[in-house]
TrEMBL record:
Taxonomy of the source species: Bacteria, Pseudomonadati, Pseudomonadota, Betaproteobacteria, Burkholderiales
Organism: Variovorax ginsengisoli
Protein name: Amidohydrolase family protein
Coiled-coil stretches: none
Family: Belongs to the metallo-dependent hydrolases superfamily.
Domain Amidohydrolase-related, chain residue ranges per copy: 8-300
């Protein structure tokens, strides 16, 4: 199934492992990963690869999200991406990295914001591995005053913030969005609804409902794969529909998380599943979800 109009991929990654440093992809010891074995990602993924994976689809623009480049020099990733975009036309924009609780955060943010390609920042805060372990006030979390001082600097540079956190830590995100209403927050990967039990999904929905009360928060529909399982519409279309119902068609957007989500599905499977989830919506809302929201929120 192909989209009836151009769409924007609001979350993808590029990497060149022969030229650039990505410890999680290059070190011998793998890191804990929510999809399990990720050895198939240890290959270059560049604009030509994305073009191959989206052949036949009307991919209009793309947003690159920082790919955990070696953390000592995050500006180098943005510099490399800017050259890639100049040479190939991809990505259309990027979300860069800066350690918000780092001693050099003010300087790093200024350098990142100076690139025309940059729209926002992603810095994964400290979160819990499971709902039962969720605690407030931990160092490096969204409650941490030092981390929040870095977050407060985003507004002066006109930068948005991409948040990757599981739903059981989204109460912190709600407080953060309330306290910094001038900063656009974009939640990654649908709030990570990994527990698909009725109780787990009910708790995920409740967390999203609280966060959706903040008008400066948007949601990317992505990252819905489950460890050891192929991506199936019957498992994921209801989750997509719930997420859109909670946040509204004006604040959600399609994203592939490629090539990471290639571990669980082909690009066509992800896009077709999203299209199936929004098939009964009016054309204007479909355009918002596929294209216009990402265009507006990432200022494309």
């Amino acid at each position: 199934m192909k989209p009836p109009e151009p769409f924007i991929d609001a979350h993808h990654h590029f990497w060149d492992l022969g030229r650039n440093p990505y410890p999680w992809l290059q070190d011998p010891e793998p890191i804990p990963f929510r999809y399990g074995d990720y050895s198939k990602l240890k290959r270059n993924y560049l604009p030509a690869d994305l073009a191959r994976d989206t052949e036949g689809f009307a991919l209009a623009k793309t947003v690159h999200i920082e790919a955990e480049w070696e953390r000592a020099n995050p500006v180098d990733e943005t510099r490399w991406l800017s050259g890639l975009a100049a040479a190939t036309g991809r990505p259309s924009a990027c979300v860069a990295h800066a350690a918000l609780d780092g001693a050099d955060v003010e300087d790093v943010l200024a350098q990142q914001a100076a690139f025309a390609l940059v729209r926002g920042i992603r810095h994964k805060p400290v979160t819990a591995h499971a709902h039962a372990d969720a605690r407030r006030g931990l160092p490096g979390s969204m409650d941490d005053e030092r981390w929040r001082r870095g977050y407060a600097m985003l507004a002066r540079h006109g930068l948005s913030f991409d948040l990757q956190a599981p739903w059981w830590n989204l109460d912190q995100a709600s407080d953060l969005a309330r306290d910094f209403p001038g900063t656009q927050m974009i939640v990654n990967h649908t709030g990570l609804p990994s527990d698909r039990s009725p109780e787990g999904l009910a708790a995920w929905r409740a967390a999203l409902e609280q966060l959706a009360l903040r008008p400066n928060v948007a949601l990317k529909i992505s990252g819905l794969g489950q460890c050891g399982q192929a991506w199936k519409e019957d498992a994921n279309v209801p989750v997509i529909r719930d997420a859109i119902a909670i946040f509204g068609a004006g604040r959600c957007m399609f994203a592939s998380n490629f090539p990471v989500d290639s571990l669980v599905a082909g690009y066509e499977t992800l896009l077709s599943g999203f299209l199936a989830a929004i098939a009964d919506r009016p054309d204007a809302e479909r355009r918002q979800l596929l294209h216009d929201n990402a265009q507006r929120i990432y200022r494309l």
